[in-house]
Amino acid sequence: MRPAEPDTALNVLQSADAALLPTDELVRLCGTVIDALGADAGLDDVAWAMGAMHARPEVRLAFGRVAAERPTAPGARALLSWQVNDVDDEVAVQALDAAARAGVVEALPDVFTAARRSLSALHGSVPPAGDRRQKSACRALDRLLARHPDRAAAIEELRWVGYDARQELATQHHDLTGMVEIPGDGRGAPPFHIDRFPVTVADYAGFVAAVDKHGPVWSHPGQPAEHDHDVLRGLSAEQRERYARHPVTGVSWFDAWAYASWAGKALPTAAQWERAAGTARFPWGDGEPSPRVAHYGREDRAGGEPRTVEVGSFPASATGLSDLAGNVWEWTRSRYLDGAELRPFIGGQAHGDTVGNWTLWACIKGGSWASGPDELAVGVRAAKHVNQRGAEVGFRCVTETIAE
């Protein structure tokens, strides 16, 4: 194949077609653009954007490698600081290791975030049960602090980075109020706790208030640029009170993920959701759906008013959960096509350019107020793009064992 010209390669990388290219072709195109930068050149605005915001992790990895190899070049240190919290582990670990080697002390707040703001990490502790990213972050934090001209002052400053947010989050970790324990399945899947009800408008309002106070510290690193989590902005005070116990709707996957992070929880996998729903055809058993057991089969209400009903309006399932079928579809953290864990990255891409990327479609479960009776079955799945919002989609959270 004849090598692509740099401008041609760049145009392909910036197009929606890049999402469909095989990895080896992507790497070849990246190499063409990188070679055109020159051996001693810095990262211009286009190259920096590739490393920070491109949808494909292979591209971010390639341009991050340039920054790692040329840490004194213009833009390199800024890109490494950005990438230490990339949604992709390979990209983040490469940036963490490079930032530590190059002494990018200005990245300390970002590295501290990557270390999960662990205060013990400020004193050289590396959690033995931590994952690869967290361990790399803790090691990078220790090396950067060692190179800081005033280590004690840097530690003191980091101790207060997001302090209020950490305290608020700490009060919610492991709070199992309103949750139901689902036992292990005997085949290796561990137990977990899941919310008894979907997250309500009142619940979500607490999260919005926290974001207003502290900023978007709980946001997913791959969410769209300038993403706003306040889906309640259009509700009046009277409406917020009237619908306080209705499930919150109009939330994207990124909104649900951020709420779960704020609450010290996570979105369930599709498998966890199904385990929580029980072994019968429907959450209530094998009997056919009826208006006595679920809220479904309704038409959209005029004027934008919610078509949901208050959570807990129907009998609980055999596992003690409410609203698993009907009322709102529920986000999971599983991809729709293959069931793997979602690791979405949108960044600065236009929404239309991401619709054809199958890795950005999540599995939603349970059916909604607008669903037909067959969609309420436990085994039914539907797909929704992670950046879409809808009046028929909400979520609930799980709490899992967290390695310290």
Describe the overall structure:
With 404 residues, the protein is of the alpha+beta class. It has 2 domains: 6-162, Leucine-rich Repeat Variant (Alpha Horseshoe), CATH 1.25.10; 170-399, Alpha-Beta Complex (paralog of FGE (formylglycine-generating enzyme)), CATH 3.90.1580. It contains 15 helices and 7 strands. It has helices at residues 6-13, 23-37, 45-53, 57-69, 76-83, 89-102, 108-114, 132-147, 151-159, 163-170, 201-214, 237-242, 253-262, 270-277, 351-354, and strands spanning 179-182, 192-195, 329-335, 361-365, 381-385, 393-394, 398-399. The radius of gyration is 23 Å and the shape is globular. The relative contact order is 0.11.
The coarse silhouette is globular
Secondary-structure-based class equals: alpha+beta
Q: Largest sheet, described in full?
A: 4 strands, mixed
The CATH class of the largest domain turns out to be Alpha Beta
State the separation between the terminal residues, measured CA to CA.
50 Å
Please compute the radius of gyration using only Cα atoms.
23 Å
What is the CATH superfamily label of the largest domain? paralog of FGE (formylglycine-generating enzyme)
Separate helix tally: 15
